Amino acid sequence: MKKKAILQKLKEFEKEERYLDKNMSLSALSYSLNTNNTYLSELINKDFHKNFSTYINELRVYYIIKKLEQNPKYRNYKISTLADESGFISHSAFSIIFKKITGMPPSDYIKNLN
Length: 114
Hints:
The chain is mainly alpha-helical. The protein is built from seven helices and no strands.
């Protein structure tokens, strides 16, 4: 499959929010895009300037940020619920990655929105 076609399928993957699947992995995504792990990993590294894990984690965090900003009810959810909703397996992983991306823990981010 050509690079352009895979990039188009990645856009569809993002639009359909399939990154919220807790079982999403490089091999699962490669399989669904009908390509191999090595090629997809290299493509993400070169075109997005990040590895697969960072790519997925950023999509998940930005998804929940959008929800928090657009829907105030999300600001009342427990951190574990936000983590679950955004596809993270644990709330601790979610909190660490959220802070790495935003510079603050989810609880502080929510306080700043209120």
